[in-house]
Model the fold of this input.
Amino acid sequence: MTEILPPKPPARPDRVSFWRYLKLFRQDILSAQPARLYRAWMAEFRTPFFRSFLVNQPDLVKTLLKERPDDFPKSDRIAEGLKPLLGNSVFLTNGETWKRQRRIIDPAFEGGRLKDTYPAMRAAAEAAVARLKGRQGAVEIEEEMSHAAADVIFRTLFSIPIEHEVAGQVFSRFRDYQRSQPLLNLAAFVPLPRWMPRFFRRGTRRNAEVIRGLIAQLTCERMNAIRAGTAPDDLATKIMTTRDPETGSTFDAAEMVDQVAIFFLAGHETSASALAWALYLMALYPEWQEKVAVEAEALEDESFAAVSKLKISRDVFRETLRLYPPVPMMVRQAACPEQFRNRNVPKGAQMVLSPWHLHRHERLWENPDRFDPARWRTENGRQCQREAYIPFSAGARVCTGAGFAMVEGPLILSMILRQFRITPVAGKVPVPVAHLTVRSKYGICIRLTER
Ligand code: HEM
Done:
């Protein structure tokens, strides 16, 4: 019997013209790349406008992300597509501004705080299961997981469910924003020259303004509740009352709007993408599905302690993040000239780090395209986890929500599999494409039946 491999997008031919590349890129950055990137340690792209280098060699990835992050700041051009929505959020800033923002935000996500956040996360997971009970049969699960992950963010951040009027509006406006902004891809990853028009579609900026207005309403109400001493002890309160240990300052209302916008964007799109792929993989590999379902009985215990028992679910989620890293590529900019692998990297060159390619690198991973959650317990798996696995990035700019996501993902996965058996829908094989996160071209359809 031939082994079933999880879906992988086709690679493009090795040589194509720049314009053809841009066209492919506009459709999807994954299938726009040649297959050799799964084997290369470093690759260079020369175009009329820019030079960029994709870096796959583990020690170079370490140099960029962990050892010398200040010499490879975030490319300011990336901000262009996201600025109308995210303003000066921690995702886009560099230097001192970014450092101060992290000093204020990080304590809210530290290990101990996860325990405080857990009841809200669990309530969101229960609500997701309840919604799915009404949706048995073939279900487009990306949409459902977006809903669930957005619910997690609002419950943990502001102690309100997604049904709350303002939360619901942010969620639906955000969907429109993405639909009206298909070029976000291009603007985010290809450093187009400054004279080239940015093609923000009509309505995109307006939508961003509305979303920010709604978030401002939430933060303003919260500021008042904090002053009145009636604020709930959630992530928003924690962040808004934390003082920068170096300057003693707190976020003002406008800065908080920027941060909430990124928590919402970075925190729900990514988790939703990973969960949708994880559930599809469970449909494809029923033997793993059963193992997760059996282990999920530990969730009878509603306390945070139960999460530590979800070991198989965590391995499955980790393997999903390897095969379908929600953030498929990241871009940095060389602040000074460098020499990497005997190549001159000029100042200003764009350095592309690609979790997508690194996680499937043929010279690093054993059976890179195979779904195998057991690999994390092998020598090769452990070594690659240290050196070639960056779904949350690494180093100083590592995802703030990594610990949060590694509780949320396995929890929701287990809660769903505890309740439902999942099977594929005939003829519906998802095709991975990179939009803001790795999604499927026509959604991800699976069939749910109650256990
Ligand atoms: C499976 C879920 C998630 C994945 C795969 C993920 C992945 C990432 C990655 C790769 C980055 C670095 C991007 C870059 O450097 O260009 C990042 C940054 C970030 N993530 Fe996540 N993320 C996830 C969930 C979350 C959650 C739940 C939150 C918050 C509630 C969050 C908040 C952030 C923030 C604030 C940053 C910016 C950090 C900085 O630049 O200093 N993420 N995430």
